[in-house]
Design goal:
Blueprint lengths: L1 E6 L8 E6 L7 E10 L2 H7 L16 E8 L11 E4 L2 E3 L5 H4 L11 E2 L18 E5 L4 E2 L6 H4 L5 H11 L7 E5 L3 H12 L3 E6 L5 H7 L3 E4 L4 H5 L4 E6 L7 H5 L2 E9 L12 H4 L4 E4 L5 H13 L6 E4 L4 H9 L6 E5 L4
Parallel strand pairs: 10-11, 10-13, 11-12, 13-14, 14-15, 16-17
Antiparallel strand pairs: 1-2, 3-4, 3-8, 3-17, 4-5, 5-9, 6-7
The structure holds NADP nicotinamide-adenine-dinucleotide phosphate and zinc ion (ZN).
The site of NADP nicotinamide-adenine-dinucleotide phosphate has 31 residues, from helix 1, helix 4 and helix 5.
């Protein structure tokens, strides 16, 4: 099946319309007519080659929502007409200890990414900036009725990437949580941490988005460009989730943790980060990372969001605005996720 898509032809090149091939629907596959695809900063890192060489052309997009239009003979999880989502992963071995523990994203044989990855059949995967996608039904999520489909798309990456560490490190009543960076991931982190019952603080470069941050559920909002922020908040947080796409001064942020506190990095900058170990040992603190979340947890997150009336704050764009949207994301000018209306492809 040949379908319309948008692709980056080479590293750092603007995306342009193209036509790609989708595989035939296998016995455990579903065919999805895509309605919306979110733009994640990871899409931009990938097409810019920040994380190393990629198999171009790259069709990005791992925040996919659409409707099932065909199912394979063995599919029981999804039916034609269902509203479904696909996140960052479209396959894994299913057999290793991590897959069996529902942490398919940490598959010991390597999960198959939704785009720019080698699929099990040896072909390169292409993501959601396209009209249709064929995905193994075990990696397809159900989008609950309660969430507007356009606001649901960013949950498939930004939602689960913040939900997973917030749950893992027990964000909830009595816990002080800081979210660093109020972009796509950050704004979902604020909403979810607030819904989990934690006391939430936003640490943003400036106070420009303060009103939004408080409306989204933050209790406090500080500018990291103001050095007094780091004095005022020293030793305060149980958990800090860093969503910044660039390097930050880890030692300064680790100083904001209480004893036994954890700074979880979900931001994935191109350059290595460094820290002074005294920032950890002087408070039994931890520095950790977290990558998206398993399929079961992603479904739990979608159901949690539906229950709590949570969706992303989106700016819907047409396909021909993708390159401009990339520029705005790079300039931290996003409120708070660009979502492509894929009917414009
Ligand atoms: P985004 O929408 O661009 O948000 C990042 C935010 O970080 C910006 O809005 C800005 O917030 C802040 N920021 C940007 N540049 C900064 C700088 N130089 N110094 C300080 N703050 C800065 O990006 P996103 O889509 O949320 O993704 C964020 C990062 O997470 C990316 O690196 C992405 O690849 C990564 N990611 C990781 C996973 C995972 O599984 N671990 C999953 C998805 C994405 P303020 O304006 O509020 O300061
Ligand atoms: Zn993403």
């Amino acid at each position: 099946m040949r379908v319309n898509a948008y692709a980056a032809p080479a590293a750092g090149q603007p995306l342009a319309p193209t036509v790609i091939e989708r595989r035939e629907v296998g016995s455990n596959d579903v065919l999805i007519q895509i309605e919306y695809a979110g733009i994640c900063h990871s899409d931009i890192h990938t097409v810019n080659g920040d994380w190393g060489p990629q198999p171009f052309p790259v069709v990005p997009g791992h925040e996919i929502v659409g409707v099932v239009t065909e199912v394979g003979a063995d599919v029981s999880r999804h039916r034609v007409g269902d509203r479904v989502g696909v996140g960052c992963m479209v396959n894994s071995c299913g057999e290793c200890a991590n897959c069996r523990a529902c942490d398919e994203q940490y598959c010991l044989k390597g999960m198959v990414g939704t785009y720019a990855a080698t699929d099990r059949d040896g072909t390169t995967t292409h993501g959601g900036y396209s009209t249709h996608v064929v995905v193994d039904s075990d990696y397809v999520l159900s989008v609950p009725d309660g969430i507007d489909p356009v606001a649901a798309a960013p949950l498939l990456c930004a939602g689960i990437t913040t939900y997973a560490p917030l749950r893992h490190w027990n964000a909830g009543p009595g816990k002080k949580v800081a979210i660093v960076g109020l972009g796509g991931l950050g704004h979902m982190g604020v909403k979810i941490a607030h819904a989990l019952g934690a006391e939430v603080t936003v640490l943003s470069q400036s106070l420009k988005k303060q009103e939004d941050g408080l409306r989204l559920g933050a209790d406090d909002y500080y500018a990291t460009s103001d050095p007094s922020t780091f004095e005022q908040l020293a030793g305060r947080f149980d958990l800090i989730v860093n969503t910044v796409s660039a390097g930050i001064d880890l030692d300064a942020y680790l100083g904001l943790l209480a004893v036994d506190g954890t700074l979880v990095n979900v931001g994935a900058p191109a350059e290595p980060l460094s820290l002074n170990v005294f920032s950890l040992i002087g408070g039994r603190r931890s520095f950790a990372g977290s990558m998206i979340g398993g399929i079961a947890l992603t479904q739990e997150m979608l159901d949690f969001c539906a229950q709590h009336g949570i969706g992303a704050e989106v700016e819907v764009i047409a396909a021909d605005q993708i390159n401009q949207a990339y520029e705005r994301v790079l300039a931290s000018d996003v409120r708070y996720r660009f979502v492509i209306d894929t009917t414009t492809l």
